[in-house]
Amino acid sequence: MKRLFLLILCFPAILFSFQIDNLKALIEVGYRTEISTSIIDDSRIDLFRMRLKYSKEFSDYVSVFVQGEYSNLDEYSVFPHIYTYFTSLNIIDALFTFNYKTISFKIGRFIPEFGYFLPKSILKLPSIHYPIANENFLNGRIDGIEFDNKLSLPYNRINLSLSAGHRYHYDLYRLASLTDDIGKFTRLGIFAGVRDIDTQDSSLASQMLTTYLYGSFNVGPISLMGGIGKRKMRIHPNQLYYMVNGRAEMTKLWFNLFFERFDTEKELSASIDYWVVENRFDINTKYEINLNNKENRFYLLFKGII
């Protein structure tokens, strides 16, 4: 009750996003509940996410980016997420970027290139939660290096990305992605990677091989995207993933429908965003349901925008 009182008292300030020189902030506060046939349980109003980021260009070739986050959205399908202790602020990105013409080179902690969903602002995504694919297809933040090369061809814009590094000092990742923007309406992409799984028991140590294909088509405010992928491990059967995402972006209203399946898990979600102030303040409602066990959640979030 005390937390709820403080949130209501501070509500006007919570909905404020700010920018001071190169420092930006995001505050995300809202209401979440799990709905059953007879009662509403696990209801809460809370500060779901607070994010600070700092960026600076030292020259035409060198820039730095640092980002920290506190997050209460800790379900398995949320990505990127962090574990917090005593509500501490965690550094989730810290990197130098070197650019020269069409080539860029990153070193530090960052999200590797992964087509449509990531890296992308959390406020431009089609739902509150990231797709399950991001958590299961090697696409975690890594401490490492990345090489990108962008090529412009007639009716095509191609980006090749190669990454290598450890995920928070644990398993070793080696990733590659290729995307092709064909004309103004179509994008195709392929992502592949290998993860060396390090365990205390050497007999269980193995590699995880992942491949993922996706495509998107956009006409005016309407977009449709589909993807399919496979994860292969030595000690487990192959796991298949696919998803379908439809979206409509009007001036102030965004509508989104998302279906995804990973192995035997299936999830369906629908969300609506209303931009009170375009690109500054957003009200998001979302309903999601696990089609296996019928668990479902409803969200109402208010977001001050980076």
How does the SSE layout of this entry go?
Blueprint: H1 2-9, H2 11-14, E1 19-20, E2 23-35, E3 40-57, E4 62-71, E5 90-100, E6 103-110, H3 132-136, E7 142-153, E8 156-166, E9 172-182, E10 186-197, E11 206-219, E12 222-233, E13 236-249, E14 253-262, E15 265-277, E16 281-290, E17 296-304
Antiparallel strand pairs: 1-2, 2-3, 2-17, 3-4, 4-5, 5-6, 6-7, 7-8, 8-9, 9-10, 10-11, 11-12, 12-13, 13-14, 14-15, 15-16, 16-17
Mean pLDDT: 77
Largest sheet: 16 strands, antiparallel, barrel
Please provide the ordered H/E string of secondary-structure elements: HHEEEEEEHEEEEEEEEEEE
State the share of residues found in helices, binned by percent: under 10%
Spatial strand order of the main sheet = 2-3-4-5-6-7-8-9-10-11-12-13-14-15-16-17
Structural class category: mainly beta
Low-pLDDT residue intervals, each spanning 5 or more residues? 1-17, 75-86
Form type: globular
- Quaternary state of this entry equals single chain
Our measurement of the CA-to-CA distance between the termini, rounded to an integer number of angstroms, reads 29 Å
Tally of individual helices? 3
Q: Strand-residue fraction? A: over 45%
The rounded Rg comes to: 20 Å
Strand runs, count: 17
Quick structural gist:
With 306 residues, this protein is mainly β.
Report on this model:
This protein is mainly beta and 306 residues long. It is built from 3 helices and 17 strands. The protein has helices at residues 2-9, 11-14, 132-136; strands at residues 19-20, 23-35, 40-57, 62-71, 90-100, 103-110, 142-153, 156-166, 172-182, 186-197, 206-219, 222-233, 236-249, 253-262, 265-277, 281-290, 296-304. A 16-stranded antiparallel β-barrel has the order 2-3-4-5-6-7-8-9-10-11-12-13-14-15-16-17. Strand 9 (172-182) and strand 10 (186-197) form a beta hairpin. It starts with a helix and ends with a strand. Residues 1-17 and 75-86 have low confidence and may be disordered.
